[in-house]
From TrEMBL:
GO molecular function: kinase activity
Record protein name field: NAD kinase
PANTHER family xrefs: NAD KINASE 2, MITOCHONDRIAL, PTHR13158
Keywords linked to the UniProt accession: Kinase, Transferase
Keyword match Cytoplasm: no
UniProt keyword Kinase, yes or no: yes
Length: 304
């Protein structure tokens, strides 16, 4: 007997909840904000909108489905099942936070604060949940297959991300390593930089785009064109590469096709690799270790 679908509502602690947890009461939190020229009502109203959205989405879950909730801080300890439908209620970044823990489960992004969130990944309103949830289990209907990026170390550590993976020193100090491309005849370059960023078309709306724009965009000195969210292509940038007698700057940007890999060999005491801005969930890399980064075989199935 097959299990009934399970709706997994993913949310995060609101700013208001964080403030009241830190200061003890609403009044104390209000006093803290007022001393800094802020009104707690703005934060409280966003909290109320989030709670209303969660209640509306919960009420829209079909009666025959099972359901549960998971807070963002608990994602690395939550076991997703094949029959799950993941409903992200919050900001775009919350979809990226959950993506690396999934194995093909459909995701529905619900925007709790339209106009404040870009809505790139949380594409729907709470009122849409009632009609959307029953349809999302139909194979091939209404979902986009978003490309992800992966980093695999030579000790089998593996990291997935929806937006981008950063490789460098903790704290973004100078990182030392050797960088090479699989399709470049085995040539490598010793570098000292602020780290390497490898990202997808989804990430091209955030951190990756800011680096790309600083480099002048596409068509300038061979700089790569940013990919679309569903393209099997990544772009990569070296941040602030430093030229010296021992380090070069000839490999600072490029593209990776579906089968291509960027290889980084560590020449520092400790480097890290983390995805989608979550430094607390990072690969630890030490002297001589090698990590390869490229297009991930898994995709994020996001309701369109």
């Amino acid at each position: 007997m097959s299990l009934a679908p399970r709706a997994v509502l993913v949310h995060r602690t609101t700013e208001y909840e964080e403030l009241t947890a830190r200061h003890g009461t609403h009044g104390q939190a209000a006093f803290f904000l007022s001393s800094r020229g802020r009104d707690i009502e703005e934060v409280a109203e966003r909290h109320r909108r989030t709670r209303r959205a969660l209640a509306e989405v919960t009420a829209a879950i079909p009666l025959t489905w099972r359901q549960t909730r998971v807070e963002r801080a608990d994602l690395d300890r939550f076991l997703f099942a094949p029959e799950d439908v993941v409903v992200v209620v919050g900001q775009d970044g919350l979809v990226a936070n959950v993506a690396k823990y999934l194995t093909g489960q459909p995701v529905v992004g619900i925007d709790t604060d339209p106009g404040r969130n870009p809505g790139v990944l949380v594409r729907h309103r709470p009122r849409d949940a009632a009609s959307l949830l029953p349809c999302v289990l139909t194979a091939g209907v209404g979902t986009d297959e978003l490309t992800m990026v992966e980093a695999v170390a030579d000790d089998t550590q593996r990291l997935l991300a929806l937006n981008e993976i950063y490789l460098g020193a903790a704290g973004h100090q100078t990182a030392r390593y050797r960088l090479g491309l699989d399709d470049d005849g085995g040539a490598v370059e010793a570098q000292a930089s602020s780290g390497v960023l490898v990202g997808t078309g989804t990430g091209a709306t955030g951190w990756l785009r800011s680096v790309w724009q600083e480099r002048g965009g596409a068509g300038n000195d061979g700089r790569p064109r940013l990919p679309g969210p569903t393209e099997d292509r990544l772009v990569w940038f070296v941040r602030e590469a430093w030229p010296s007698p021992a380090t070069g700057t000839s490999l600072v940007a490029g593209e990776l096709a579906a089968g291509g890999r960027l290889t980084l060999t560590v020449e520092s005491e400790r480097l890290i690799a983390f995805g989608d801005g979550i430094e607390s969930d990072a690969l630890e890399l030490t002297w001589g270790q090698r990590v390869r980064v490229g297009v991930c075989g898994e995709r994020l199935r996001l309701a369109g």
